[in-house]
Amino acid sequence: MRIYLDHNATTPVHPEVASAMQEMLRENWGNPSSTTAEGAQARRAVDRAREQVAALVGADADEIVFTGSATEANNTALHSVARASDRTRFLSSTIEHPSVDEPLAFLGEQGSQVIQIGVDETGRLDLTSLRLQVDDRTALVAVILANNEIGVVQDIPTLAEIVHRIGAHLHVDATQALGKIPVDVATLGADTLVGSAHKFNGPKGAGFLWARKGVLLTPWIRGGPQEKRRRGGTENTSGIVGLGQAAELARVDLPVRATDSARLRDRLWEGILEGVPGVRRNGSEEHVLPNTLNVEFEGAAGELLLQVLDGEGIAVSAGAACASGSIEPSHVLSAIGRNPEQARGSLRFSTGLRNDEAQIDRVLGLLPGLVARAREVAA
Ligand SMILES: Cc1ncc(COP(=O)(O)O)c(C=O)c1O
Protein backbone atom coordinates (compact mmCIF):
# COMPACT_ATOMS: atom_id res chain seq x y z
CA MET A 1 0.00 0.00 0.00
CA ARG A 2 1.41 3.36 -0.98
CA ILE A 3 1.60 6.18 1.53
CA TYR A 4 0.44 9.34 -0.18
CA LEU A 5 1.71 12.48 1.54
CA ASP A 6 1.40 14.82 -1.44
CA HIS A 7 -2.15 16.14 -1.10
CA ASN A 8 -1.14 19.69 -2.03
CA ALA A 9 -0.22 18.37 -5.49
CA THR A 10 -3.53 16.59 -5.95
CA THR A 11 -5.92 14.45 -3.95
CA PRO A 12 -7.61 11.10 -4.54
CA VAL A 13 -11.20 11.41 -5.75
CA HIS A 14 -13.67 10.77 -2.91
CA PRO A 15 -15.84 7.67 -3.59
CA GLU A 16 -19.04 9.73 -3.28
CA VAL A 17 -17.66 12.18 -5.84
CA ALA A 18 -16.80 9.34 -8.22
CA SER A 19 -20.34 7.91 -7.83
CA ALA A 20 -21.98 11.26 -8.54
CA MET A 21 -19.79 11.68 -11.63
CA GLN A 22 -20.46 8.17 -12.87
CA GLU A 23 -24.19 8.69 -12.54
CA MET A 24 -23.85 11.90 -14.51
CA LEU A 25 -21.88 10.18 -17.28
CA ARG A 26 -24.26 7.24 -17.49
CA GLU A 27 -27.67 8.76 -16.86
CA ASN A 28 -27.50 12.51 -17.22
CA TRP A 29 -25.52 13.25 -20.36
CA GLY A 30 -27.71 16.00 -21.81
CA ASN A 31 -26.43 19.38 -22.93
CA PRO A 32 -27.41 21.93 -20.27
CA SER A 33 -28.02 24.53 -22.98
CA SER A 34 -30.59 22.32 -24.78
CA THR A 35 -34.26 23.06 -24.29
CA THR A 36 -35.09 19.35 -24.22
CA ALA A 37 -35.91 17.29 -21.12
CA GLU A 38 -32.37 15.86 -21.29
CA GLY A 39 -30.99 19.40 -21.32
CA ALA A 40 -33.15 20.46 -18.40
CA GLN A 41 -32.03 17.46 -16.36
CA ALA A 42 -28.35 18.30 -16.96
CA ARG A 43 -29.04 21.96 -16.21
CA ARG A 44 -30.54 21.03 -12.83
CA ALA A 45 -27.41 19.05 -11.93
CA VAL A 46 -25.15 21.98 -12.90
CA ASP A 47 -27.34 24.39 -10.92
CA ARG A 48 -27.15 22.17 -7.86
CA ALA A 49 -23.35 22.02 -8.13
CA ARG A 50 -23.26 25.81 -8.34
CA GLU A 51 -25.20 25.99 -5.06
CA GLN A 52 -22.82 23.51 -3.45
CA VAL A 53 -19.73 25.46 -4.51
CA ALA A 54 -21.31 28.75 -3.46
CA ALA A 55 -22.06 27.28 -0.02
CA LEU A 56 -18.41 26.26 0.41
CA VAL A 57 -17.24 29.87 0.11
CA GLY A 58 -20.31 31.68 1.53
CA ALA A 59 -21.32 33.17 -1.83
CA ASP A 60 -24.45 33.43 -3.95
CA ALA A 61 -24.73 30.78 -6.65
CA ASP A 62 -24.97 33.27 -9.50
CA GLU A 63 -21.55 34.65 -8.52
CA ILE A 64 -19.87 31.32 -9.36
CA VAL A 65 -18.45 30.67 -12.85
CA PHE A 66 -17.28 27.14 -13.65
CA THR A 67 -13.90 26.88 -15.37
CA GLY A 68 -11.55 24.10 -16.47
CA SER A 69 -9.07 24.74 -13.64
CA ALA A 70 -7.95 27.25 -11.04
CA THR A 71 -5.29 28.26 -13.58
CA GLU A 72 -8.01 29.29 -16.01
CA ALA A 73 -9.98 31.02 -13.25
CA ASN A 74 -6.90 33.05 -12.25
CA ASN A 75 -6.35 34.03 -15.90
CA THR A 76 -10.00 35.09 -16.30
CA ALA A 77 -9.98 37.19 -13.13
CA LEU A 78 -6.71 39.01 -13.88
CA HIS A 79 -7.64 39.55 -17.52
CA SER A 80 -11.08 40.90 -16.52
CA VAL A 81 -9.70 43.43 -14.08
CA ALA A 82 -7.07 44.57 -16.58
CA ARG A 83 -9.80 45.07 -19.20
CA ALA A 84 -12.23 46.86 -16.88
CA SER A 85 -9.82 49.22 -15.13
CA ASP A 86 -8.05 52.26 -16.49
CA ARG A 87 -5.41 51.81 -13.79
CA THR A 88 -2.25 50.02 -14.87
CA ARG A 89 -0.46 48.97 -11.71
CA PHE A 90 -0.73 45.32 -10.57
CA LEU A 91 0.62 44.04 -7.27
CA SER A 92 1.09 40.48 -6.06
CA SER A 93 3.37 38.62 -3.67
CA THR A 94 6.67 36.83 -4.27
CA ILE A 95 5.03 33.49 -3.35
CA GLU A 96 2.17 33.30 -5.85
CA HIS A 97 1.42 30.24 -7.96
CA PRO A 98 2.61 30.44 -11.61
CA SER A 99 -1.04 30.69 -12.70
CA VAL A 100 -1.04 34.18 -11.16
CA ASP A 101 2.59 35.09 -11.85
CA GLU A 102 2.47 34.33 -15.55
CA PRO A 103 -0.73 36.19 -16.49
CA LEU A 104 0.61 39.15 -14.53
CA ALA A 105 3.94 38.94 -16.37
CA PHE A 106 1.92 38.94 -19.61
CA LEU A 107 0.17 42.15 -18.51
CA GLY A 108 3.63 43.53 -17.79
CA GLU A 109 4.74 42.74 -21.34
CA GLN A 110 1.73 44.70 -22.56
CA GLY A 111 2.76 47.81 -20.69
CA SER A 112 1.31 47.45 -17.19
CA GLN A 113 3.49 47.92 -14.16
CA VAL A 114 3.76 44.68 -12.18
CA ILE A 115 5.27 44.64 -8.71
CA GLN A 116 5.82 41.73 -6.35
CA ILE A 117 5.63 42.47 -2.64
CA GLY A 118 8.04 40.49 -0.48
CA VAL A 119 7.26 38.19 2.43
CA ASP A 120 9.01 37.76 5.78
CA GLU A 121 10.96 34.61 6.66
CA THR A 122 7.76 32.87 7.75
CA GLY A 123 6.14 33.62 4.38
CA ARG A 124 3.71 36.31 5.55
CA LEU A 125 3.24 39.29 3.28
CA ASP A 126 5.11 42.47 4.24
CA LEU A 127 2.17 44.77 4.99
CA THR A 128 4.37 47.85 5.37
CA SER A 129 5.67 47.34 1.88
CA LEU A 130 2.13 46.73 0.61
CA ARG A 131 0.93 49.99 2.19
CA LEU A 132 3.81 51.83 0.48
CA GLN A 133 3.17 50.27 -2.92
CA VAL A 134 -0.63 50.50 -3.11
CA ASP A 135 -1.60 53.80 -4.64
CA ASP A 136 -4.35 55.30 -6.77
CA ARG A 137 -2.75 53.85 -9.91
CA THR A 138 -3.24 50.34 -8.54
CA ALA A 139 -5.85 48.27 -10.35
CA LEU A 140 -5.42 45.00 -8.49
CA VAL A 141 -3.64 43.18 -5.70
CA ALA A 142 -3.44 39.37 -6.06
CA VAL A 143 -2.55 37.33 -3.00
CA ILE A 144 -2.53 33.59 -2.43
CA LEU A 145 -4.63 32.72 0.63
CA ALA A 146 -2.61 29.62 1.49
CA ASN A 147 0.64 28.81 -0.24
CA ASN A 148 0.96 25.44 -1.95
CA GLU A 149 4.58 24.79 -0.91
CA ILE A 150 4.90 25.99 2.68
CA GLY A 151 1.19 26.27 3.53
CA VAL A 152 1.50 29.79 4.97
CA VAL A 153 -1.90 31.47 5.38
CA GLN A 154 -2.16 35.21 4.76
CA ASP A 155 -4.17 37.74 6.74
CA ILE A 156 -6.54 38.55 3.88
CA PRO A 157 -9.07 40.69 5.84
CA THR A 158 -6.29 43.13 6.81
CA LEU A 159 -5.00 43.16 3.23
CA ALA A 160 -8.52 43.81 1.96
CA GLU A 161 -8.79 46.94 4.07
CA ILE A 162 -5.54 48.32 2.70
CA VAL A 163 -6.44 47.44 -0.89
CA HIS A 164 -10.00 48.76 -0.78
CA ARG A 165 -9.06 52.03 0.89
CA ILE A 166 -7.49 53.01 -2.41
CA GLY A 167 -10.28 51.53 -4.57
CA ALA A 168 -8.24 48.63 -5.92
CA HIS A 169 -9.46 45.06 -6.57
CA LEU A 170 -8.41 42.17 -4.31
CA HIS A 171 -7.96 38.82 -6.03
CA VAL A 172 -7.47 35.76 -3.84
CA ASP A 173 -6.18 32.38 -4.98
CA ALA A 174 -7.84 30.04 -2.46
CA THR A 175 -6.95 26.85 -4.32
CA GLN A 176 -4.95 25.32 -1.47
CA ALA A 177 -7.13 26.63 1.33
CA LEU A 178 -10.47 25.10 0.32
CA GLY A 179 -11.33 21.97 2.25
CA LYS A 180 -8.51 22.66 4.73
CA ILE A 181 -9.49 25.92 6.45
CA PRO A 182 -12.76 27.90 6.46
CA VAL A 183 -13.04 30.18 3.43
CA ASP A 184 -15.77 32.81 3.44
CA VAL A 185 -15.69 35.50 0.78
CA ALA A 186 -17.39 38.11 2.97
CA THR A 187 -15.04 37.56 5.93
CA LEU A 188 -12.02 37.68 3.63
CA GLY A 189 -13.24 40.84 1.88
CA ALA A 190 -12.10 39.57 -1.53
CA ASP A 191 -13.47 40.76 -4.88
CA THR A 192 -12.61 37.61 -6.82
CA LEU A 193 -11.51 34.17 -5.59
CA VAL A 194 -10.63 30.90 -7.28
CA GLY A 195 -10.55 27.20 -6.44
CA SER A 196 -10.02 23.78 -8.01
CA ALA A 197 -11.84 20.50 -7.34
CA HIS A 198 -8.81 18.23 -7.50
CA LYS A 199 -7.27 19.85 -4.43
CA PHE A 200 -10.22 18.78 -2.25
CA ASN A 201 -10.96 15.23 -3.39
CA GLY A 202 -12.79 16.21 -6.56
CA PRO A 203 -11.85 15.57 -10.20
CA LYS A 204 -9.14 17.27 -12.26
CA GLY A 205 -10.22 19.74 -14.91
CA ALA A 206 -12.95 21.38 -12.82
CA GLY A 207 -12.31 24.78 -11.25
CA PHE A 208 -14.32 27.86 -10.44
CA LEU A 209 -14.13 31.61 -10.23
CA TRP A 210 -16.18 33.54 -7.71
CA ALA A 211 -16.68 37.21 -8.56
CA ARG A 212 -18.45 39.61 -6.22
CA LYS A 213 -21.62 41.11 -7.71
CA GLY A 214 -20.64 44.20 -9.65
CA VAL A 215 -17.26 42.84 -10.83
CA LEU A 216 -17.28 42.91 -14.62
CA LEU A 217 -15.98 39.62 -16.01
CA THR A 218 -14.53 39.43 -19.50
CA PRO A 219 -14.57 35.85 -20.79
CA TRP A 220 -11.12 34.33 -21.23
CA ILE A 221 -12.69 31.65 -23.40
CA ARG A 222 -15.16 33.05 -25.94
CA GLY A 223 -17.52 31.26 -28.25
CA GLY A 224 -20.79 30.53 -26.49
CA PRO A 225 -23.47 31.79 -24.15
CA GLN A 226 -22.57 29.34 -21.37
CA GLU A 227 -22.02 30.53 -17.82
CA LYS A 228 -24.01 33.68 -18.65
CA ARG A 229 -21.46 34.56 -21.32
CA ARG A 230 -18.67 34.53 -18.76
CA ARG A 231 -17.07 31.28 -20.09
CA GLY A 232 -17.80 29.81 -23.49
CA GLY A 233 -17.94 26.09 -24.26
CA THR A 234 -20.33 23.26 -23.43
CA GLU A 235 -20.02 22.59 -19.72
CA ASN A 236 -17.96 19.70 -18.36
CA THR A 237 -21.09 18.49 -16.62
CA SER A 238 -19.65 15.42 -14.89
CA GLY A 239 -16.63 17.44 -13.73
CA ILE A 240 -18.92 20.19 -12.44
CA VAL A 241 -21.09 17.68 -10.57
CA GLY A 242 -17.91 16.16 -9.09
CA LEU A 243 -16.74 19.62 -8.05
CA GLY A 244 -20.13 20.30 -6.43
CA GLN A 245 -20.15 17.01 -4.52
CA ALA A 246 -16.54 17.51 -3.40
CA ALA A 247 -17.41 21.04 -2.25
CA GLU A 248 -20.32 19.78 -0.19
CA LEU A 249 -18.23 17.06 1.46
CA ALA A 250 -15.39 19.52 2.10
CA ARG A 251 -17.80 21.97 3.78
CA VAL A 252 -19.50 19.38 5.97
CA ASP A 253 -16.35 17.43 6.87
CA LEU A 254 -13.99 20.38 7.22
CA PRO A 255 -13.61 20.35 11.04
CA VAL A 256 -12.83 16.62 11.08
CA ARG A 257 -10.51 16.82 8.07
CA ALA A 258 -8.60 19.74 9.55
CA THR A 259 -8.17 18.06 12.94
CA ASP A 260 -7.14 14.72 11.45
CA SER A 261 -4.65 16.13 8.99
CA ALA A 262 -3.12 18.44 11.63
CA ARG A 263 -2.75 15.58 14.12
CA LEU A 264 -0.88 13.47 11.56
CA ARG A 265 1.19 16.41 10.31
CA ASP A 266 2.21 17.24 13.89
CA ARG A 267 3.04 13.62 14.66
CA LEU A 268 5.27 13.60 11.59
CA TRP A 269 7.05 16.83 12.54
CA GLU A 270 7.58 15.77 16.17
CA GLY A 271 8.93 12.42 15.00
CA ILE A 272 11.30 14.08 12.53
CA LEU A 273 12.56 16.46 15.23
CA GLU A 274 13.22 13.50 17.50
CA GLY A 275 14.75 11.14 14.98
CA VAL A 276 16.61 13.26 12.43
CA PRO A 277 19.31 15.79 13.36
CA GLY A 278 19.84 19.02 11.40
CA VAL A 279 16.24 19.77 10.38
CA ARG A 280 14.23 22.95 10.32
CA ARG A 281 10.73 23.84 9.27
CA ASN A 282 10.18 26.16 6.31
CA GLY A 283 7.48 28.80 6.77
CA SER A 284 5.18 29.85 9.57
CA GLU A 285 4.28 27.26 12.21
CA GLU A 286 1.42 29.45 13.41
CA HIS A 287 -0.30 30.68 10.26
CA VAL A 288 -0.17 27.47 8.29
CA LEU A 289 -2.53 24.98 6.66
CA PRO A 290 -3.32 22.09 9.01
CA ASN A 291 -1.97 19.50 6.56
CA THR A 292 1.29 21.02 5.35
CA LEU A 293 4.83 20.44 6.60
CA ASN A 294 7.83 21.72 4.65
CA VAL A 295 11.13 20.59 6.14
CA GLU A 296 14.73 21.34 5.31
CA PHE A 297 17.01 18.38 5.85
CA GLU A 298 20.27 20.27 6.10
CA GLY A 299 22.84 19.22 3.53
CA ALA A 300 20.68 16.51 1.93
CA ALA A 301 20.00 15.94 -1.77
CA GLY A 302 16.22 16.40 -1.74
CA GLU A 303 15.74 15.06 -5.26
CA LEU A 304 17.37 11.78 -4.21
CA LEU A 305 15.39 11.64 -0.99
CA LEU A 306 12.19 12.07 -2.98
CA GLN A 307 13.13 9.27 -5.35
CA VAL A 308 14.12 6.86 -2.63
CA LEU A 309 10.95 7.60 -0.64
CA ASP A 310 8.93 7.02 -3.81
CA GLY A 311 10.70 3.68 -4.23
CA GLU A 312 9.67 2.81 -0.67
CA GLY A 313 6.05 3.59 -1.59
CA ILE A 314 5.91 7.09 -0.10
CA ALA A 315 4.90 10.13 -2.16
CA VAL A 316 6.10 13.62 -1.17
CA SER A 317 7.29 16.75 -3.05
CA ALA A 318 10.69 18.43 -3.29
CA GLY A 319 11.67 22.05 -2.70
CA ALA A 320 13.72 22.16 -5.84
CA ALA A 321 12.97 20.81 -9.28
CA CYS A 322 15.23 19.63 -12.04
CA ALA A 323 14.89 22.09 -14.92
CA SER A 324 17.05 21.78 -18.04
CA GLY A 325 19.59 19.60 -16.30
CA SER A 326 20.20 21.83 -13.27
CA ILE A 327 18.47 21.94 -9.91
CA GLU A 328 16.21 25.02 -9.70
CA PRO A 329 15.25 26.08 -6.17
CA SER A 330 11.59 26.86 -5.58
CA HIS A 331 10.79 30.57 -5.83
CA VAL A 332 8.78 30.28 -2.61
CA LEU A 333 11.71 28.97 -0.58
CA SER A 334 13.93 31.64 -2.14
CA ALA A 335 11.35 34.29 -1.17
CA ILE A 336 11.53 33.26 2.50
CA GLY A 337 15.30 33.54 2.40
CA ARG A 338 16.44 29.97 1.79
CA ASN A 339 19.50 29.64 -0.40
CA PRO A 340 19.56 27.13 -3.30
CA GLU A 341 21.28 24.48 -1.21
CA GLN A 342 18.72 24.80 1.59
CA ALA A 343 15.90 24.63 -0.93
CA ARG A 344 17.48 21.53 -2.45
CA GLY A 345 17.40 19.81 0.94
CA SER A 346 13.72 20.63 1.50
CA LEU A 347 10.73 18.32 1.20
CA ARG A 348 7.02 19.02 1.43
CA PHE A 349 4.75 16.54 3.20
CA SER A 350 1.02 17.19 2.85
CA THR A 351 -1.48 14.96 4.63
CA GLY A 352 -5.09 14.23 3.69
CA LEU A 353 -7.95 11.75 3.68
CA ARG A 354 -6.97 8.10 4.26
CA ASN A 355 -3.64 8.89 5.94
CA ASP A 356 -3.27 7.35 9.36
CA GLU A 357 -0.87 7.04 12.30
CA ALA A 358 0.62 3.75 11.09
CA GLN A 359 1.60 5.38 7.79
CA ILE A 360 3.25 8.30 9.54
CA ASP A 361 5.15 5.91 11.81
CA ARG A 362 6.40 3.93 8.82
CA VAL A 363 7.73 7.15 7.25
CA LEU A 364 9.36 8.07 10.56
CA GLY A 365 10.97 4.66 10.74
CA LEU A 366 12.57 5.07 7.33
CA LEU A 367 13.53 8.75 7.30
CA PRO A 368 16.64 8.79 9.55
CA GLY A 369 18.46 6.21 7.39
CA LEU A 370 17.31 7.71 4.09
CA VAL A 371 18.28 11.25 5.10
CA ALA A 372 21.73 10.04 6.16
CA ARG A 373 22.18 8.51 2.68
CA ALA A 374 20.90 11.65 0.94
CA ARG A 375 23.42 13.66 2.96
CA GLU A 376 26.30 11.43 1.90
CA VAL A 377 25.33 11.86 -1.75
CA ALA A 378 25.13 15.65 -1.45
CA ALA A 379 28.45 15.90 0.46
C1 LIG B 1 -2.21 27.85 -5.14
C2 LIG B 1 -2.58 27.23 -6.45
N1 LIG B 1 -3.19 27.96 -7.39
C3 LIG B 1 -3.54 27.45 -8.57
C4 LIG B 1 -3.28 26.14 -8.88
C5 LIG B 1 -3.68 25.62 -10.22
O1 LIG B 1 -4.78 24.76 -10.11
P1 LIG B 1 -5.25 23.87 -11.35
O2 LIG B 1 -4.48 22.60 -11.23
O3 LIG B 1 -6.72 23.68 -11.15
O4 LIG B 1 -4.96 24.63 -12.57
C6 LIG B 1 -2.63 25.33 -7.93
C7 LIG B 1 -2.30 23.92 -8.26
O5 LIG B 1 -1.20 23.47 -8.04
C8 LIG B 1 -2.28 25.89 -6.68
O6 LIG B 1 -1.67 25.16 -5.75
| Rounded mean pLDDT score | 96
Class from secondary-structure proportions: alpha/beta
CATH homology-level superfamily of the largest domain:
Type I PLP-dependent aspartate aminotransferase-like (Major domain)
CATH class value of the largest domain = Alpha Beta
Shape: globular
What proportion strand? 15-25%
Termini separation comes to 33 Å
Helix content: 40-55%
CATH domain topology of the largest domain: Aspartate Aminotransferase, domain 2
Quickly describe the structure.
This protein has 379 residues and is an alpha/beta fold. It is 44% helix and 17% strand. It has helices at residues 15-27, 37-57, 70-84, 98-109, 127-133, 156-165, 185-188, 226-229, 237-275, 302-311, 331-335, 340-344, 357-378; strands at 3-4, 64-67, 89-93, 113-117, 138-144, 169-173, 192-196, 207-211, 279-281, 292-297, 314-315, 317-318, 320-323, 326-329, 346-350.
